[in-house]
């Protein structure tokens, strides 16, 4: 990470915070008005992805709907409070002309005033109907407005139109399966991984039920589950309560139980390291540990959600008693970019202690919530902790953490042992955040390393329930957006070689994701939400090109013995796909280079660094091949009979673009564009070098990788010093 004064301990500038780095309260989570704005038609391989035009259309639509500017009205308190506000013992305020109150609208709940208005006299919602009776503080005009706009359904903020469209898609999908003679019923014994709805071969050509839908998730065996009807964290699962372990334990005395079953059913949270920590071992003094823990709270605290009203000293006391591992993790990560003199003395000792404590704690099941918070940090910043003697595989570690979490959830012990002074709502929010962070980092490393996830879509679907919590923030919404996007990309990558069937599905999924979450692009400090979208789109395009190459060469699954090189795959790609990959790779590198503060760049998660690195490497390779094509004026011909479709599936039906048009094969890159692309990558390499803390540091390795590919593809290129 950038070469900076490693002794700096200042807080990150608030103006440089990103969507994953801020905890601003969300004023309106996923309302239908936010979702229903005009978006351009997005097509895989189409380089004309005009996000600026989408934003302009949104502003124009908003201006036309609002009409002439109106005077701001003073919010009035309701004559009576709705059920939710009475339960929370809070004031109930009107919200514009809505029947529902401000609090219910902000947290995405259906207000009891809305339910009463809809149920009154069972009046059908058509024009001319007037509602009579008690309307709370919002009046009869507001009640009649409810009948003339999209309605929200209980348990979510999706409009009635969206609900009906989902039902229609599901019915169409069922009919398509029934009409297909070759359709085979799927059984629970199927070994197929759970994919997005419609991504298997039986339903490949049927309408898509987006994975981003807030309410339903399709799991293995074809069963569809309503997320809103699922239990929340904190209660034992019915599977556990009816398990042979429970039958065994309830039928005999505890002495008749084997020790592992005793520990599982009646856990004793006594860490191996509970008798010692980095202070009692005299690695750090109490003051040094407190200072480092404060730096950790400032830079990385959003990932563990320490109570804000707790002082650093209070948190340190709790961690020493309950989970010394988390204290060691926090101090070690904070010291990486802090006092260089202290780091030289104790950093290796901290890593050694961390390794011993982690190995001991991993064998104890179940574990505390603080232990899971420690694994969150270790997974997100695993490359930063790793050395020759201690390496962390974030995919493996996050998978272990998820299994620990699932164990606690099944036993119904997730919400026990709440700290004194921490209210139940915040404790529940923290628990959901730990699950969401583990799910996201695990899914990210499934994509980065090409391995499969240990949890299915039902597990990912549970993550959305955090949006129902009254104290969820914009940060939580952005986490769900990231998780939804990576799930779309992961499902496509894991879909095998059925390129023709999977491509239209992932195209629709990405379009739906952008419709649902694209409003985040207009918010301040959005670069990493938008960057994630471009990175995901790029990964889909490259994976699609790779699979096309395998199908073209008739290599199939046997290709693993001698996989084609990146250059071979890209040289096979058509011009349109090349330009599309180039566009998205440029966007990713630009987003990372736009971070002005080197210290903040250093604190970014390994996920951001790896996404930027892979995009930069591909940007250099793409620029090299496109530049060569410009000089030779030759490109691979399009095989119109290919089963993979290559270009055909990129465009929606009815497009005026002709597949036989030679303009699709014309490609070129000016010297100015080529120089700009190489300069972007060289700048990123220089930035990694500036923030590196040694030759073996991950940032130093990233810089070396970019320099290597620059020298290989452009031997005469001389980069400027940034």
Give a quick summary of the entry.
This protein has 722 residues and is mostly helical. The protein has helices at 32-35, 51-66, 83-88, 102-107, 112-119, 139-146, 160-179, 238-241, 244-251, 259-265, 286-300, 312-322, 324-335, 340-362, 369-380, 382-385, 394-411, 424-449, 457-462, 474-493, 499-517, 527-552, 566-572, 575-593, 598-603, 606-632, 671-691, 698-713, and strands spanning 216-218, 224-226.
Structure description:
- The protein is an all-alpha fold.
- Among the domains are: 83-107 and 111-146, no CATH class; 616-713, no CATH class.
- The protein is built from 28 helices and 2 strands.
- It has helices at residues 32-35, 51-66, 83-88, 102-107, 112-119, 139-146, 160-179, 238-241, 244-251, 259-265, 286-300, 312-322, 324-335, 340-362, 369-380, 382-385, 394-411, 424-449, 457-462, 474-493, 499-517, 527-552, 566-572, 575-593, 598-603, 606-632, 671-691, 698-713; strands at residues 216-218, 224-226.
- Strands 1-2 form a two-stranded antiparallel ribbon.
- A hairpin with a 5-residue loop joins strand 1 and strand 2.
- Helix 20 runs parallel beside helix 22.
- Residues 81-113 form the Zn(2)-C6 fungal-type domain.
- GO terms for molecular function: DNA-binding transcription factor activity, RNA polymerase II-specific; transcription cis-regulatory region binding; zinc ion binding.
- It comes from Kuraishia capsulata CBS 1993.
């Amino acid at each position: 990470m950038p070469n900076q004064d490693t002794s700096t301990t200042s807080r990150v500038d608030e103006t440089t915070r990103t969507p994953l780095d801020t905890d601003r309260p969300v004023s309106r989570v996923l309302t239908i008005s936010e979702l229903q704005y005009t978006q351009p038609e997005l097509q895989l391989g189409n380089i004309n992805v005009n996000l600026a035009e989408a934003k302009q259309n949104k502003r124009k639509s908003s201006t036309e709907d609002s009409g002439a500017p109106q005077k701001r009205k003073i919010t009035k308190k309701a004559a009576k409070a709705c059920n939710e506000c009475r339960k929370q013992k809070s004031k109930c305020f009107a919200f514009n002309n809505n029947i529902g109150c401000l609090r219910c609208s902000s947290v995405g709940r259906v207000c009891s005033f809305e339910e009463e208005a809809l149920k009154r006299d069972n009046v059908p919602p058509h024009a001319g109907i007037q509602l009579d009776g008690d309307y709370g503080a919002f009046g009869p005009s507001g009640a009649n407005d409810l009948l003339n706009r999209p309605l929200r359904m209980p348990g979510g903020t999706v409009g009635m139109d969206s609900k009906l469209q989902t039902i229609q898609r599901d019915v169409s999908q069922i009919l398509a399966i029934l009409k297909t003679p070759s359709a085979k019923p799927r059984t629970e014994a199927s070994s197929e991984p759970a994919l997005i709805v419609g991504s298997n071969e039986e339903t490949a050509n049927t309408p898509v039920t987006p994975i981003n839908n807030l309410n339903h998730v399709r799991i293995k065996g074809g069963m569809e589950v309503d997320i809103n009807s699922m239990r929340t964290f904190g209660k034992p699962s019915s599977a556990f309560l009816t398990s042979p372990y429970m039958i065994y334990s309830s039928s005999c005395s505890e002495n008749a139980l084997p020790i592992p079953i005793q520990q599982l059913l009646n856990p004793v949270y006594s860490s191996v390291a509970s008798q010692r920590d980095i202070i009692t071992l005299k690695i750090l003094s109490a003051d040094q540990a407190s200072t480092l823990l404060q730096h950790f709270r400032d830079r990385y605290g959003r990932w563990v959600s320490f109570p804000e009203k707790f002082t650093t000293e209070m948190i340190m006391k709790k961690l020493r008693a309950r989970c010394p591992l988390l204290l060691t993790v926090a101090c070690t990560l904070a010291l990486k970019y802090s006092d260089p003199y202290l780091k030289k003395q104790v950093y290796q000792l901290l890593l050694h202690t961390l390794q011993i404590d982690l190995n001991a704690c991993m064998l104890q099941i179940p574990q505390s919530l603080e232990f899971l918070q420690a694994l969150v940090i270790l997974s997100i910043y695993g490359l930063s902790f790793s050395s020759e003697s201690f390496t962390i595989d974030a995919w493996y570690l996050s998978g272990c953490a998820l299994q620990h979490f699932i164990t606690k959830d099944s036993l119904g012990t997730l919400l026990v042992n709440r700290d004194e002074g921490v209210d139940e709502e915040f404790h529940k929010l923290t628990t959901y955040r730990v699950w969401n962070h583990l799910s996201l980092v695990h899914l990210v490393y499934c994509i980065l390393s090409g391995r499969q996830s240990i949890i299915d879509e039902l597990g990912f679907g549970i993550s959305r329930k955090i949006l129902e919590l009254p104290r969820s923030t914009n940060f939580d919404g952005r986490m769900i957006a990231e998780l939804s996007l990576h799930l779309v990309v992961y499902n496509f990558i894991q879909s095998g070689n059925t390129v023709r069937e999977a491509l239209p599905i992932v195209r629709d999924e990405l379009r739906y994701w952008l419709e649902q979450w694209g409003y985040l692009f207009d918010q301040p400090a959005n670069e990493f939400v938008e960057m994630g979208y471009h990175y995901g789109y790029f990964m889909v395009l490259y994976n699609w090109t790779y699979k096309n190459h395998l199908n073209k060469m008739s290599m199939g699954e046997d290709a693993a013995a001698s996989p084609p090189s990146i250059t071979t795959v890209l040289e096979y790609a058509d011009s349109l796909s090349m330009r599309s990959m180039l566009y998205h790779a440029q966007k990713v590198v630009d987003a990372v280079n736009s971070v002005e503060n080197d210290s903040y760049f250093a604190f970014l998660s390994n996920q951001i660094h790896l996404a930027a690195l892979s995009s930069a490497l591909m940007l250099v390779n793409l620029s090299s091949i496109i530049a060569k094509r410009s000089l030779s004026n030759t490109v691979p011909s399009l095989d119109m009979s290919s089963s993979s479709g290559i270009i055909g599936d990129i465009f929606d039906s009815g497009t005026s673009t002709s597949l036989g048009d030679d303009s699709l094969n014309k490609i070129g890159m000016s010297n100015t564009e080529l120089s700009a692309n190489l300069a972007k990558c060289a700048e990123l390499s220089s930035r990694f070098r500036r923030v590196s803390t040694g030759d073996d540091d991950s940032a130093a390795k990233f810089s070396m990788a970019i320099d290597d590919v620059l020298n290989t593809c452009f031997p005469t290129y001389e980069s400027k010093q940034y």
